[in-house]
Amino acid sequence: MVFMQSYCEGNASISHTWVDEGISPCFYFTLVPTILLTIAFFLGTIHCIFYQKYGTPMEPKFIPRSRLYGFQQVVSVLLLVQFPGGIVWRAASAAELPGYVVLYGCFSALAWAWAIALLRVERRRALLMDRTRGHSTVLLLFWALAFSAENLAFVSWYSPHWWWGLENNQQQVQFGLWLMRYISTGLLFFIGLKAPGLPRRPYMLLINEDERDVENSGQSLLGRTEENQSTWQGFRTKVRLLVPYMWPRGNLFLQLLVLFCLGLLGIERAINVFVPIYYKNIVNELTDGTHWHTLSITVCVYVLLKFMQGGGAGASGFVSNMRSFLWIRVQQYTNRVVQVRLFGHLHSLSLRWHLGRRTGDVLRSIDRGTSSINSLLSYIVFSIFPTIADIVISIIYFVTNFNAWFGLIVFICMTLYLTVTIIITEWRTKYRRDMNQQDNNAKSKAVDSLLNFETVKYYNAENYEVSRFEEAILKYQVSEWKTQASLALLNQTQNLIIGSGLLAGSLLCAYFVTEGKFQVGDFVLFGTYIIQLYTPLNWFGTYYRMIQNSFIDMESMFKLFEEEEEVKDEVNAGNILYKLGKVEFENVYFSYTNGKEILKDVSFTVLPGQTVALVGPSGSGKSTIIRLLFRFYNVQGGCIRIDGQDISKVKQTSLRAHIGVVPQDTVLFNDTIRENIRYGRIAASDQEVEEAAIAADIHDKIMAFPDGYDTQVGERGLKLSGGEKQRVAIARTILKAPQIVLLDEATSALDTQTERNIQASLNKVCANRTTVVVAHRLSTIIGADQILVISDGRIAERGGHDELLLKGGLYADMWMKQQQAQDSDSSSSETEAKDRKSEKLQPPSTSSGHHGH
Questions:
Q1: pTM over 0.85
Q2: How far, in Å, CA of 599 to CA of 602, rounded?
Q3: Are 528 and 302 spatial neighbours (Cβ–Cβ below 8 Å)?
Q4: Which neighbouring-strand residues pair with 797?
Q5: Measured at the alpha carbon of residue 515, what is the angle toward residues 511 and 519, in degrees to the nearest 5?
Q6: Can you identify the CATH homologous superfamily of domain 232-562?
Q7: Is 689 exposed, middle or buried (0-12, 13-18, 19+ CB in 10 A)?
Q8: Cα gap 818→821, rounded to integer Å
Q9: What is the DSSP letter of 16?
Q10: Which CATH architecture has domain 666-737?
């Protein structure tokens, strides 16, 4: 029969915490279950009350089915069972059953039973607020402490009171139980970060989606979903996109530079170890009365190492400055490649995307995204990895050269610090995302308002625009306050953990010095090393936040990269073989959105050198035909051919090289007139530019400007009139010398006289060229070889001007209406002229005559 003779084995005292090079089992197996039960009971009770008061029962259909959750439950139950099982086995196999074994088994079983209950509560009830990723803080803290407690066993590696020797059956069983606990608690913690048994999105959002039945629609709901995802969502995809920028392929010099910088990083780690050691040696040599020659050498080596290290963990030392200097070239390479690739990708996107984009939003995303990639690489390579290496090296050094207590202190502080940092940082991610969104909104409003300042002036809306901008700024500042407040909370929590660890370690080291076990130099070494270690550890949270913020900032940029090119060249596409310029539309169907066809079975042929005019009411599909021919979009049905070649089978660049476009709304670059005309053919000389301007009948007008061809046209060409801009566009097209010309209502916005002048210039452009004209004023296309009347996406009529008038159909009706409008305008102009003439001939007013009396 087994008797409980004493609480600790061998009548030892629980106050003896360190026995025979290890933690006293009595002390350890009393402290650990007490802490775990305290956390599970008190915090768990608060947790349950909170969920009962503020939570709501989840409907079964919203609870995800997960094998990992079942695995969590099985592992938790297994841990619960092994504690009372251990008591039974110990009682059956040993002659003595110490009291701490019973307490450890009972308290641990109660704690894990409470943890299982919390796990079930979280699965069945949901808080109405948006939850963060992972389980609740109480469960994560419980699992983290349980896992850390099992790691404490390593401190007693050399102690004969523990099971590491595996000398008998009892130690082997204890080791097996410990191994099971170690693996199980570790798995529970890491699986708990993912929380497989809980919905991935806020419960209220799931309910709203179910009620509105918008499983795959509703961009606003989708947007909210993304805002509550973790920044580590899609981590592999993000890293895969980053890899090409991390290693400068094809540049041997930069590759050697990267390797050299990594070598300097390793040197820094070694220096960080030797600086406090030499500082300790100086103190010991001073107290021991060592000879001056030896002391001076030690001091010189220490100063040299300190010079190499700089102020605190190599923050500004020679090595780190050299590394930063050499890394500039690599950083510039990364920055350049990212921006160039993204800029090229944006230009490759379809017209549909560019018509729907928000320029201010895109520019902010590019700006933050490119800078965040540099920050991300710098923080990961030169901050995160070195910090982790310093922590691991310090733990090994303290355990081997001091004793296990110091390594234990560093390990516990590091574990608590990293756990709290990750949990709080993940929680505050949504505030950072919202701040970015509000920032984008504010900048977009500002850009839109400034780009449309004429409209603002026309409607006296300056105050309205300022108030809108101020409202956007206020929303941004609310989000900014939440971000900064949560940051302050995180910093204070981190400081509390680090300060507690520093206090415990310093008191312990001072105690050993007073006991004569350590020298004064050892205390100096500990203080120097621990501060040197905690400096990067203190920054570790900042690095984590910055990396997370970089991922957040990159999300918008990654979305730009993920935008699919709607119009792509086929894999084996070749250049178009231009012969005569015959254009054919064969049974073409097209729609911008599903369910609303713009073009329906459109077929026509433009023979080489002919001019075909497209007329019809607004929205009938005239401009769409021009865009399809230029291949801004792909047709949904039918085929478009040039000289018998399907334009979807040839390269876009070769197709567009043969086509010139004069659009309805000419937008010029904010540059000189000369450069805007030269844009038609970049390699053209100044003489060729002027010849194109003469052909477009704008040369004399340009020469009348004070700066001539060097005149700045302003943003979007606003310093020029509509007719001047149009002629610059015509000169640009003349300089390109295309074989096919597309005119998209090029003169619709101009007055009659300007239109006639420009029409003469257009006739020069179109001479002997295949031409497709979209016309609003029918008088401009009387001489067209063929006129197509587009109505409701179909060709309603076709033929010459006279032929269509004789038909008496849509074209004849449009012609009559325009002629009546012109006659009305002419008569009203004549009436106004007569009125002005009669006003001049009227006698003086009666008031003037009154003075005559």
A1: no
A2: 6
A3: no
A4: 789
A5: 85
A6: ABC transporter type 1, transmembrane domain (1.20.1560.10)
A7: buried
A8: 5
A9: -
A10: 3-Layer(aba) Sandwich (3.40)
Taking the C-alpha atoms of residue 661 and residue 738, their distance in angstroms, rounded to an integer, is 9
CB–CB of 22/161 below 8 Å? yes
DSSP string, 428-485: THHHHHHHHHHHHHHHHHHHHHHHTHHHHHHTT-HHHHHHHHHHHHHHHHHHHHHHHH
| Contact indicator for 22, 156 with CB cutoff of 8 Å | yes
Q: Two tokens at 788?
A: 């197509």
Pick 353 or 651 by higher pLDDT.
651
Q: How many CB atoms lie within 10 A of CB 325?
A: 10
The 3-state secondary structure of 506-521, one letter per residue? HHHHHHHHHCCCCCHH
pLDDT bracket for residue 832 (50, 70, 90): low
Structure tokens at 400: 């081997």
Instruction: Yes or no: say if 267 and 513 are a contact pair by the CB < 8 Å rule.
Output: no
Neighbours of 340 (CB within 10 A): 10
Chain segment 219-250, per-residue pLDDT in tens? 332 233 344 455 555 566 666 666 666 677 77
Fold of 577-658+739-812: Rossmann fold (3.40.50)
pLDDT at 214: 36
- Distance separating alpha carbons of residues 251 and 264, to the nearest angstrom: 20
Are 746 and 664 spatial neighbours (Cβ–Cβ below 8 Å)? Answer: yes
Domain ranges in the chain are: 9-198, 232-562, 577-658+739-812, 666-737
Beta-strand ranges (E) seen in 185-300 are none
Residue-wise pLDDT for 53-94, tens only, equals 777 777 776 677 777 888 888 888 888 888 888 888 877 776
- Residue 529 to residues 233, 271, 277, 387, 609: CA-CA distances in angstroms? 37, 12, 9, 13, 85
Helix (H, G, I), strand (E, B) or coil at 153: helix
**11 φ/ψ sector (left φ>0, alpha ψ -120 to 50, else beta):** left
Q: Give CA–CA dist 710/712, Å, rounded.
A: 6
| Cβ proximity of 169 and 175 under 8 Å | no
**Strands 611-615 vs 786-791: parallel, antiparallel or unpaired:** parallel
Bridge-based pairing state of the strands 659-662 and 740-744:
parallel
Q: Which residues of 116-127 are buried (b: 16+ CB within 10 A; e: fewer)?
A: bebbebbbebbb
The answer to whether the 232-562 and 666-737 domains have the same CATH topology is: no
What's the rounded mean pLDDT across residues 214-218? 37
Would you say the C-alpha torsion 673, 677, 683, 686 has a positive or negative sign? negative
Query: Structure tokens of 61?
Result: 């259909």
Q: Which residue, among 595, 589, 543, 574, has the nearest Cα to 421 in the 3D structure?
A: 543
Q: Which residue has the higher pLDDT, 83 or 214?
A: 83
* Interatomic CA distance for residues 582 and 242, integer angstroms: 47
Backbone angles phi, psi at 511, to 5 degrees: -60, -45
Helix (H) or strand (E) holding 603: strand 599-606
Question: Is the distance from CB of 735 to CB of 688 less than 8 angstroms?
Answer: yes
Give dist(CA 772, CA 210) in Å, integer: 52
Average pLDDT for 815-833: 67
